[in-house]
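Quick one, T. Sequence first:
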Amino acid sequence: MTPQEMRDALADLAREAGLDVRVATGPREVEPGIPVQSGVCRVRDKLWVILAAGDSFEDHIQTLVEALRTHAGASLESRYLPPAVRARLEGAD
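Structure tokens:
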């Protein structure tokens, strides 16, 4: 599985688990010297996974893995996942 395929599969899982996945395409810095980075935040009552356009696929994958482990782990346990995706979620990077 390519890094882009892994990122896309994890983003789909996150959406199915109720997380709002968005790509930040704005400026690369919040303020001079403070870069935009991928991460998870809460906006009102919804969890958002923000993927910074300037981050690598690996950064996006790691952000999605952490979000899924933290906020959707139980819903993924009994579900079929491609072996590469399951290995990534279980920490066998």
